[in-house]
Specification:
The chain has about 350 residues and is α+β, with helices and mostly antiparallel strands. It is about 35% helix and about 20% strand. It contains 8 helices and 11 strands. The termini are far apart.
Length: about 350
C-alpha cells in the first residue's frame, strides 16, 4: 500500500512540473504570445505588389475612351502589334501569289461542295491539268454580307494549308459576268491605292477568276463590322472626335491619289474591335474624277460626319470600267514594281 501511495505522489509531482512548463512565458526572441501557427497563403492569392498593380490597371481602364489594358503585361506595344500584323499580311499575300490556282469550296449551313470551283489568277494561263503544288484550297465558311457586286464570306485555308498563319480572311464572290467585271475593277483600284500606301482600306491578298463562266473572288483582310449598326432610330450615327479625324485622313489619302469613292454610305465604313475605321467597296470608284466631283464627295463626308443621313443619296459622277483604266493601274505587277 505504501508503494502505491508513493507512485501516486511521484505522478502528481511530474504532472505539476509539466503544467509549469506549458504555462511559462514565451522566450524573449519571440515578439508574440500567440502560439498558433500562422496560416500559409493560399496558392491562388497573388502577391501584394501584384494585387496593387491589378487595382491600378482596373482604375486606368475606367478612364473615358481608354482601351482595356493590363499594366503588368510585358507584351508588344501598339506600334509593335501593327508591325506584326503588317508582316503577317505580306506573308499571307506571298502565299497566295505562290499559288496561282485557287480551288474554292463552299462549306457552311446546308452547303458542302463535293468538288471545288477552279479559279485562276489573272496571269495564269488556262490548262487541263494543274500541279497540286500550285493549287491553294480556300473554304468559304459563312456569309458576312451582300452587295451590288457580290457576296462576302468568311474564308479559311483548306487541306494541306491549315498550318499557314494568316489574319481573318474575307472572300468577295461574284457569280455573273457583269459582277465579275465590277469585281475586277475593284481589285485594280485596290492595287493602285495599296501601291501608293493609302491607309484605311482593305489589304488585298489575291484575286482569282474564271472569265468564261463569270466567276471571280477577291480575298482581303477582315475589317470589322459596318458602322450602320450604330444607327439610331433617327438614322443618325454619332462619331467621336478621333473617328471624324480618322475618316477625314482616309479620304484625304484616297483623294490625293485622284480616286473618287463615289459610294460613301454607312455600310461601306467598317469599325474593328479596337475602334479603327476603314473604307470598303471600291467597285464604283473612279480614277478620272474632276475637282468638282472630289469637292462634292468631301461635302458629303462633312455631312456624314455631322450625323446627316446620306445612305440614299445618289452616287457621284460616272465610274470607270476596267477597259478605261490606264494599263499601269490595271496591271498589278507594274503597279507594285513602282
Amino acid at each position: 500500500m505504501a508503494g502505491l501511495h508513493l507512485c501516486i505522489i511521484h505522478d502528481c509531482i511530474e504532472r505539476w512540473s509539466n503544467l509549469n512548463e506549458s504555462t511559462s512565458p514565451v522566450s524573449s526572441s519571440s515578439s508574440s504570445t500567440n502560439l498558433k501557427r500562422k496560416a500559409d497563403a493560399l496558392p491562388c492569392d497573388p502577391p501584394k505588389r501584384e494585387r496593387i498593380i491589378e487595382k491600378d490597371s482596373k482604375e486606368l481602364n475606367k478612364l473615358p475612351g481608354r482601351l482595356p489594358t493590363t499594366v503588368r503585361s510585358s507584351g508588344p506595344s501598339l506600334r509593335e502589334q501593327r508591325k506584326l500584323v503588317a508582316d503577317l499580311h505580306v506573308r499571307t499575300r506571298s502565299h497566295f501569289e505562290d499559288h496561282p490556282v485557287l480551288t474554292l469550296y463552299l462549306k457552311y449551313g446546308n452547303y458542302n461542295s463535293p468538288t471545288p470551283e477552279i479559279l485562276l489568277s489573272p496571269d495564269q494561263p488556262r490548262s487541263d491539268v494543274y500541279p497540286s503544288g500550285r493549287c491553294l484550297p480556300l473554304i468559304l465558311t459563312s456569309k458576312l454580307g451582300r452587295g451590288a457586286t457580290g457576296q462576302a464570306y468568311s474564308a479559311t485555308f483548306g487541306h494541306g494549308h491549315e498550318h499557314v498563319a494568316s489574319p481573318r480572311l474575307v472572300a468577295k464572290l461574284a457569280t455573273t459576268k457583269e459582277r465579275l467585271r465590277s469585281l475586277r475593277h475593284e481589285y485594280d483600284v485596290y492595287c493602285y491605292l495599296q501601291s501608293r500606301n493609302v491607309r484605311g482600306i482593305p489589304f488585298i491578298f489575291g484575286y482569282y477568276q474564271d472569265s468564261h463562266r463569270g466567276i471571280g473572288v477577291l480575298i482581303m483582310n477582315h475589317l470589322g463590322k459596318p458602322i450602320s449598326r450604330r444607327m439610331d432610330d433617327t438614322k443618325k450615327i454619332n462619331f467621336t472626335a478621333s473617328e471624324r479625324a480618322s475618316l477625314r485622313n482616309i479620304f484625304k489619302g484616297i483623294h490625293a491619289r485622284g480616286v473618287l469613292h463615289r459610294d460613301l454610305r454607312s455600310w461601306n465604313i467598317m469599325c474593328n474591335d479596337v475602334g479603327e475605321l476603314s473604307v470598303i467597296d471600291f467597285d464604283r470608284a473612279s480614277l478620272t474624277a474632276s475637282k468638282e466631283q472630289l469637292s462634292a464627295e468631301k461635302e458629303r463626308l462633312r455631312q456624314f460626319l455631322k450625323g446627316e443621313f446620306v445612305d440614299k443619296d445618289p452616287v457621284i459622277g460616272s465610274n470607270d470600267l476596267p477597259s478605261d483604266i490606264d494599263e499601269r493601274i490595271r496591271n498589278p505587277s507594274v503597279v507594285r514594281s513602282k
